[in-house]
Structures are given as C-alpha cells and as structure tokens.
Design a protein that fits this description.
Length: 120
C-alpha cells in the first residue's frame, strides 16, 4: 500500500516562509512526477508546482519566484519551499505523485493534506 505523508504546514505571518515535505512510502517501483496542489476554502484544487524525475519543474504563475520545488529521488521525498508568503496562499496543500508499484502501473496518488495559513 502506498502512502504520501505531508508535513511542515502551519501558521505564518505574511512575508514569512514555510517548507513542506512529502514522503512517499510503500511498495514503490518508480516515481514519475511529484508535485503540490492546494485548495483554498470554497475554491477548486489547483496546481502549485510539479517536478519530474529528471528535474523539470513547473509552477503556477501566482507562486513563481516565491516558491521552489525540489525532490530527493533516493528518499522518495518532495519538498516545497515557500517564501514571501501572502494571505492568498492560505489553503490546504496536497502532495501528489504519479508512481508505479509491484502490482500497478503508473497511477495518481494523493496525500491527506496539510494546512497552511498566512495571516496579514
């Protein structure tokens, strides 16, 4: 069974920083893309940042130049460094991974989410 476990969320003042981590564990054979999505109250879930196994990255326009996504392939872990946080960054942040296991081909997996709250 695959699990994605996020950590690092919390409450921070505007202009502050947080670092999210997500560890993928279980009978994993390979991980393709790993990324972060967020869902603010009353809004749809949206892509924040994504990185491929080869290191290609993509960001939502709203977080470019403020957030940085990275991953440690050896540890099956993806990180999201969030700087210059704004109140509009407040949301539940979800880790996502496209991975294969001993029993399945590449499928989409989600973490349980971690709350990020930015106060003004």
């Amino acid at each position: 069974q695959v699990q994605l476990v996020e950590s690092g969320g919390g409450l921070v003042q505007a202009g502050g920083s947080l670092r999210l981590s997500c560890l993928a564990s279980g009978s994993i054979l390979a991980i393709n893309a790993m990324g972060w999505y967020r869902q603010a109250h009353g809004k749809q879930r949206e892509l924040v940042a994504v990185t491929t196994r080869g290191g290609t990255t993509d960001y939502a326009d709203s977080v470019k130049d403020r957030f940085n996504i990275s991953r440690d392939n050896a540890k099956n872990t993806v990180y999201l460094q969030m700087n210059s946080l704004k109140p509009e960054d407040t949301a539940v942040y979800y880790c996502n991974a496209v991975l294969s296991t001993a029993r399945t081909s590449f499928l989409n997996y989600w973490g349980q989410g971690t709350q990020v709250t930015v106060s003004s």
